[in-house]
Design goal:
The chain has 2 domains: 17-95, Fumarate Reductase Cytochrome B subunit, CATH 1.20.950.20; 97-252, Fumarate Reductase Cytochrome B subunit, CATH 1.20.950. The protein is built from 10 helices and 2 strands; from the N terminus they run αβαααααααβαα. The chain has helices spanning 3-7, 17-41, 63-88, 106-113, 127-152, 159-172, 175-207, 214-217, 231-234, 239-243; strands spanning 9-13, 219-223. Strands 1-2 form a two-stranded antiparallel ribbon. α2 (17-41) packs antiparallel against α3, α3 (63-88) crosses α5 and α5 packs across α6. The structure holds protoporphyrin IX containing FE. Protoporphyrin IX containing FE binds next to α2, α3, α5 and α7. The site of protoporphyrin IX containing FE has 23 residues, from α2, α3, α5 and α7.
């Protein structure tokens, strides 16, 4: 981008380092949990006739190792999730809640993503993304809950079993049903990932406002003639202050 072009853009600093690190830690955890989880459900690599998967220690993908990785990633996911709750209170841009006032644009966003409309009004976070994040957080809570409920059953008299597993098992009816739901929701993460990556790239290439790079740099670039309608939901000050160089959230 040339210097003259750059002047027509406003740099908005949205994501603090903690949020960016959390995003990538969570991404890694989910990938590891998904892959190891599928293996736990169907230990295909151990082959047939090589013995009970749990005891095939010489195999690099012994069930013991894969389960340990799964549970460790589960603990990291839990800590990352608690940290994300803390981040929620630190900055407006870290909230991105869905409010009824954002709904009016939902149709335009969907029509744009399926190439029927050319674009939707400029926003920092579109209503579809806002809805998707509520959905993904609900899925994370569900997986942590059901995951720890199953995990607790390895010691049915232990603290985890008492605090989480017993009532969860009663709710789901039996352990098998709990496994089935944990597995179904795992596939929802996979679907989310496909849409999420597609939409991030779509935005990055179509609008060229730094959507893709923002989870690395923390910045979004908005053209001065397309000030986001939700800018003040995400900024700590009034948009006029940002435009007037008053300093709030303006970097570089
Ligand atoms: C995004 C998050 C997660 C995904 C995608 C995921 C995925 C999976 C999948 C696909 C299975 C196999 C289910 C089956 O067929 O029985 C599984 C099993 C399991 N997961 Fe997760 N999981 C996640 C989070 C967690 C968490 C946070 C924990 C907590 C420690 C956990 C603990 C377990 C346990 C205990 C099992 C059963 C292991 C066994 O039967 O040996 N999971 N997971």
């Amino acid at each position: 981008m040339s210097v003259s072009e750059k002047r027509t853009f406003l740099k908005i600093y949205l994501f603090q380092p903690g949020l960016r690190i959390w995003h990538w830690v969570q991404f890694l955890c989910i990938v590891v949990l998904f892959v190891t989880g599928l293996y736990i459900g169907d230990p295909f690599f151990t082959g047939s006739g090589s013995g009970e998967p749990t005891v095939v220690y010489p195999h690099i993908l012994s069930m013991d190792l894969v389960r340990t990785i799964h549970f460790s990633a589960g603990y990291v996911l839990l800590v990352a999730f608690l940290y994300r709750i803390f981040l929620f209170f630190t900055k407006k841009a870290h909230r991105a809640l869905m409010a009824p006032k954002h709904l009016w644009m939902l149709k335009d966003v969907i029509l744009t993503y399926v190439f029927i409309k050319k674009s939707y009004p400029p926003v920092i976070r579109n209503p579809l993304a806002r809805l998707a994040y509520i959905f993904i957080f609900a899925l994370i809570v569900f997986q942590i809950w059901t995951g720890f409920a199953m995990y607790g059953m390895s010691n049915p008299n232990g603290a985890t079993a008492t605090v989480v597993s017993q009532w969860t098992l009663a709710l789901f009816g039996n352990e098998f049903t709990l496994h089935v739901w944990h597995r179904i929701v795992a596939w929802l993460f996979f679907l989310f990932l496909i849409f999420h990556v597609y939409l991030v790239f779509y935005n990055a290439f179509l609008f060229k406002e730094g959507e893709l790079a923002s989870m690395a740099s923390g910045n979004r670039w908005v053209p001065l003639h397309r000030i986001p309608v939700d800018a003040e939901d995400a900024l700590e000050c009034k948009i006029e202050d940002v435009l007037g160089d008053a300093g709030c959230d303006r970097r570089g």
